[in-house]
Design a protein that fits this description.
single chain; eight-stranded antiparallel β-sheet; about 15% helix; Jelly Rolls; about 220 residues
């Protein structure tokens, strides 16, 4: 049996997939503290990963959905899923951290999947006890022709120049990065971010990691 790990690559069945593909590039914002990259080899691992997440989301012992609120379904601890596709994306998240956060080794604080159905959203929030947060966009779901912000990931924070185009420290413009299935974004955990209410029918699925500095 082939080990799922092989140095800087992972195996998905018989396919050996590099953790960081040759020529993979990042778009940089905020003096390098925010970065976005999009992977183009998603056909090799998205189908299996989506199937595993939807399977776990139906397990009431593994999935969490706040009662009476539209915050989506959460499935925590990717590292416990025994899923090679999740292990590959987690390794890519760690590689993005290494390239973006200087002079720090990452320690995983928490990881989870979010499954948004029609009407789900996330409120503006930050993450405690972490230095960097990463989101991977597995399936952006269906576009809503009546709402261009449906399901959009957004950052608005007065500490970020990209949000303060009219006056320093006055957040007048949301940062809405251009994302696709296969996109991954890293940003400081203290930055205020959220997901606009989702109006599509197909589940919108993301993976997230909060990373702290290793002691």
């Amino acid at each position: 049996m082939t080990d799922a790990r092989d140095g800087n690559a992972r195996y998905i069945g018989p396919r050996k997939i590099p953790v960081w593909p040759a020529g993979q590039r990042r778009a940089i914002e905020e003096n390098g503290t925010i970065a976005v990259t999009t992977f183009n080899d998603t056909a090799d691992y998205h189908p299996g990963l989506i199937a595993r997440i939807l399977e776990l989301s139906r397990d009431q012992q593994k999935a969490t959905r706040p009662v009476g609120r539209g915050l989506g379904t959460k499935v925590y601890h990717l590292e416990r899923w025994r899923c090679p596709e999740a292990d590959l994306i987690s390794a890519r998240a760690m590689a993005l951290f290494d390239q973006t956060v200087t002079n720090a080794r990452p320690r995983l604080a928490l990881s989870w999947a979010s499954i948004y159905q029609r009407g789900d959203y996330s409120v503006p929030h930050s993450h405690t006890e972490a230095v960097a947060s990463i989101v991977y966009f597995l399936d952006l779901g269906d576009p809503d022709p009546n709402d261009p912000l449906s399901g959009r990931f957004s950052i608005v924070d007065p500490r970020l120049a990209v949000c303060c185009l009219e006056e320093p420290h006055c957040a007048t413009h949301p940062f809405l990065p251009e994302l696709a299935a296969g996109s991954m974004i890293i940003f400081p955990s203290q930055v205020v971010h959220w997901v606009h209410p989702y109006g599509g029918e197909r589940p919108r699925i993301t993976l997230s990691w909060n990373l702290a500095r290793a002691s």
